[in-house]
Amino acid sequence: MTATPVVLFLCIHNSGRSLAAKVLLDHYARGRVDVRSAGTEPGDQLNPAVVAVLTERGLDSSREFPKPLTDDDAKAADVVVTMGCGDTCPYYPGKRYLDWELQDPADLPKEQVRPIVDEIDRRVQGLLAELVPPSK
Length: 136
Prior knowledge:
Helix content is 37%, strand content 15%. The chain is α/β, with parallel strands linked by helices. The chain has a 4-stranded parallel beta sheet. Strand 1, helix 1 (17-29) and strand 2 (34-39) form a beta-alpha-beta unit. The model has no long low-confidence stretch (mean pLDDT 93).
C-alpha cells in the first residue's frame, strides 16, 4: 500500500452510492486518504436525493460530478470498492477489492435514501479505521 492509501469507489453511474462514499471518506479522512470515485457508465448528473442527504449532514458535494473510470485511477488505487456494478466493473489484477452490496438510490425519495447513506457511512468509517488507524 502507498504511504497515503488510495481508495477508488466504483459504481455504474457515479452519481449516488460512490458519490456518497467519496464525500464521506474525504470528510472523515481529512487528507489522510486519496479518495476517488468513478462510474463504468457515468450519469448526466448527481442523484439529487443523495446530494440532499449529504447536505443535511453538512457535507458539500458541489465540486463532484459523474466521472468515467480511467485506467490511471484504477491502477493508482490500493483498494477498489465496487457498489452494484457487477460484471460491468473491470478487474485489475493485484488490487484489493471490496464489494459493497447496497440498494441503488436511483429514483428513490430522500427518506429512502437516508438509510442507504447511513450504511455507506458506517462502512466508510470502518474502512478508514482499517487503512489509517487513529493516532494516539
